[in-house]
Amino acid sequence: xxxxxxxxxxxxxxxxxxxxxxxxxxxxxxxxxxxxxxxxxxxxxxxxxxxxxxxxxxxxxxxxxxxxxxxxxxxxxxxxxxxxxxxxxxxxxxxxxxxxxxxxxxxxxxxxxxxxxxxxxxxxxxxxxx
Length: 130
Known about the structure:
alpha+beta; Alpha-Beta Plaits; 38% helix
């Protein structure tokens, strides 16, 4: 959840920053930024990156984007909450459930009827490696 709803421009800024993680440290499977929340499914790119901490990487993105938003709006605090909820998906069923939740976020937020019409949604047709 965000502290306040993001504008479409702010959603785009956060989305672009999170998409940049693709292929660097992680493989992005699903990403959606809607005004009230953000969801992300990542896979570690290689075993050599096993010590990378998802939370630290996400916090860096939130800090950078938060500062940019504060600079534009004059707000004293970034629009993101300090905490993130990280979850390790353990099996195919859990993966499919969360993947579907991310896909349906724009419709659930009543932004679009068809997720394909939402510009801040990234879905990779990749099978997880369980």
